[in-house]
Amino acid sequence: GFYTDNGLEQSVMVSRIPHRVKKEFQQEILTLMGLHHKPKPRAPGKETSAPRFMIDLYNKLHGSGASGSIEDDDEDEHPHFFSRTLENEMPKLNSSDVIMSFVNHVHKIHFLRHERDRTFFFDFGEVSPQETVTGAELRLYKAKDRRGRHTTYHIEVFTIQQGVDEQDKILVPETNHLVSSDFEGWILMNVTNAADSWTIMPASNMGLYLKITDMSTGQELRPNHIGIVGHRGDPDKQAFLVCFFKMSQQLHVRRTR
Amino acid sequence: SARRQMDTRTAVSHRDDSHWTWRRTRRYVRPVCRRKTMYVDFEDLGWQSWIIAPEGYSAFYCDGDCIFPLGLNMNATNHAIVQLLLHTVKSQTMPKPCCSPTKLSAISVLYFDDNSNVILKKYRSMKVKACGCH
Questions:
Q1: How many CA atoms lie less than 13 Å away from A34 in the CB half-sphere?
Q2: B28-29 and B34-36 strand pairing
Q3: Residue B47 and residue A76: Cβ atoms within 8 Å?
Q4: What is the interface pTM, i.e. ipTM, of the complex?
Q5: Residue contact A100–B118, C-beta within 8 A
Q6: Looking at chain A, which runs of residues are DSSP E strands?
């Protein structure tokens, strides 16, 4: 995995590194990346919505996505971590050090399983408490309303919190949004407060609850009734969460080991 | 100065600064301090299962001697002149100026974590942009 000059303006693979040393170097690079071990994602599909969003973002930040364009990551020229070119698209980019997309793991939470398309659980277990949330968006994909009615829907997102009894769960309003029935595309719900509290207190993370009301009738509807793609829908249109973090200065300092 | 003149006489060919200088004495002389290529290939490391992009990156490294005249060397600091002067006077005890990075840049890495979440993180000071004598 390491190539150096051979003195004749050619790159040759460094093959004489003993296996044990090579392993140690790999561990050094992992530690440099702030990882304790090589991540082992379970069957990660790059075609699902969260990775696709991140790959698109990466490609936009690095031109066409060619590996050579990484050269442009000049710290002096770009004092902020991410390029200004996407500032209009995502204002939080400029103040972020890390961007993370979270997959909905609602199936792992026993009390949320039965409401899969209107409940969400994003695992913040890997997030360091020293990271500060600068913004978080729940992204829901809405297809056109197949019922053909012209109305407006009120989409509300609640955080699920522990009640007095262990069995009790309470819903605390987080954000809400009005959307027209003929709208088609991604709906962005600001869930910064929830992400912030999950980062500081991971144990408080009990998920999010989605409530949809037809503004003309007052009737509560299921997400799929208004075209919001659920877990049985297209993988590239599944709901996910994008979170923007700013790292504390301490995390940039390499610790002596 | 006398030493430099002697060196000029003995030098047969300098293909360029990037190569080892071949002298009549048939001794290899280390080139002056400069940036050289060091490519880290994530795919070769077997990390493609979790690193989405890039496939690897040019980390570069600094190699070569910091010798008089320092003008030949890239980005020599003022202190490097003092250090080299001291080395000339007391070569046994005083080290030469060090050929090391003077400018570093970041790389951004896109990768999966254990929960299949995707992280885009920019790592500062990961690649050498320029080398110099310190």
A1: 20
A2: unpaired
A3: no
A4: 0.82
A5: yes
A6: 2-5, 11-13, 98-103, 119-120, 131-142, 152-162, 169-180, 185-190, 208-214, 220-221, 240-247
Closest CA of chain B from A116, distance in Å: 18
How many Cα atoms are found within 13 Å in the side-chain-facing hemisphere of B129?
A: 16
The answer to whether B117 contacts A123, with C-beta atoms less than 8 Å apart, is yes
Residue of B nearest to A108 (CA): B115
Identify which of B132, B129, B6 has the alpha carbon closest to the alpha carbon of residue B57: B129
CB-count exposure of residue A89 (10 Å: 0-12, 13-18, 19+): exposed
Which whole-number Å values give the CA distances from A206 to A6, A111, B34, in the listed order?
56, 9, 55
Q: Residue A109's CB: how many other CB atoms inside 10 A?
A: 16
Q: Please state which of the ranges A112-121, B40-49, B98-107 shows the lowest mean pLDDT.
A: A112-121
Q: Where do we find the tokens 């522990």?
A: A162
> β-strand A185-190 against A131-142: which pairing, if any?
antiparallel
**Nearest 10 degrees: CA dihedral of A57, A61, A63, A66?**
-80
pLDDT 10s digits, A9-28: 677 777 777 888 888 888 88
